[in-house]
Design goal:
Distance between the termini: 25 Å
Radius of gyration: 18 Å
Number of helices: 8
CATH architecture of the largest domain: 3-Layer(aba) Sandwich
CATH superfamily of the largest domain: NAD(P)-binding Rossmann-like Domain
Strand content: 5-15%
Shape: globular
Structural class: alpha/beta
Largest sheet: 7 strands, parallel
Helix content: 40-55%
Number of strands: 7
CATH class of the largest domain: Alpha Beta
CATH topology of the largest domain: Rossmann fold
Strand order of the largest sheet: 3-2-1-4-5-6-7
Order of helices and strands: EHEHEHEHEHEHHHE
Length: 264
């Protein structure tokens, strides 16, 4: 398969590290002009420099700003220009006992993981529909379907994100724009490394800590290891491409078989 996004512009939120960075790299390698987003301008610029060092042909633009605020989202979209592919990757997570999740935490997780994505879709979708082509992808999680006991507030936000994506797909029906969510399984990122060490013995070497975490806390994974960010990015690049024109309103799993179901 040849994925060609050479005439498209993509915005990937939270793309200075982890899954977002890997997605930005894949989309750029497919020819898209990719807007790199993070809160701090210096972090965005350093990420762009790193990505260009890996492949000088990548077309990248800086779109620093806080997309969890209305004015920040508008500024990021203005820096990006006409958006053909929107990837809502930004998200927060953390372990908190269910009875200790405060009102403030419930609101924060909703605002960052759900409302920020919904706002960007609302702002970008009309232009895509008017042009007759577009891709909206929101990075959800296996936690949307298998709510973790240690972070039900996170699971709630990712379940809501599935509903947001399905609803906007209906709004875009027949327009040539597809709206999907990607259900990512347990993935190896710096933030997840920190989380793993919160859950297992912090003195263990990383390979042992990872195996212990999967054995004790994610035993239903058929992959039996953490997923690498590039493995998530490959699916996103396909869904962002013209090849995925008949996939919309879907929650597509790249979860290593974590969710024990034959349907999403």
């Amino acid at each position: 398969m040849q994925i060609d996004l050479s005439s498209r512009t993509a915005l990937v939120t939270g793309s200075t590290q982890g899954i977002g960075r890997a997605i930005a790299a894949d989309l750029a390698d497919a020819g898209a002009t990719v807007a790199i987003n993070g809160r701090r301008a210096e972090t965005v610029e350093s990420t762009i420099a790193e990505l260009r060092a890996e492949n000088p042909e990548r077309r990248l633009v800086a779109a620093a700003g806080d997309v969890t605020a209305a004015e920040g989202a508008e500024a990021v979209l203005a820096a990006t220009g006409e958006v053909d592919v929107l990837v809502n990757n930004l998200g927060i997570f953390g372990a908190t006992l269910a009875l200790e999740v405060t009102d403030e935490e419930w609101l924060r997780y909703f605002e960052v993981n759900v409302l920020a994505a919904a706002r960007l879709i609302r702002l970008a979708l009309p232009g895509m529909m008017a042009r007759g082509w577009g891709r909206v992808l929101s990075i959800a999680s296996d936690s949307a379907l298998v709510i973790p006991a240690e972070m039900i507030h996170y699971g709630m936000s990712k379940t809501a994100l599935l509903a947001v994506s399905r609803g906007y797909a209906k709004e875009a029906a027949g327009s040539g724009v597809t709206v999907n969510s990607v259900i990512a399984g347990p993935t190896h990122t710096p933030g997840v490394e920190d989380f793993v060490y919160e859950m297992v013995d912090a003195s263990l070497p990383w390979d042992e800590a990872q195996r212990e975490f999967m054995r004790a806390h994610r035993p239903q994974s058929l992959l039996q290891r953490l997923i690498e960010p590039a493995e998530i990015a490959h699916l996103v690049a396909y869904l962002a491409s013209p090849l995925a024109s008949a996939t919309t309103g879907a929650a597509v799993r790249v979860d290593g078989g974590y969710v024990d179901s034959i349907v999403p």
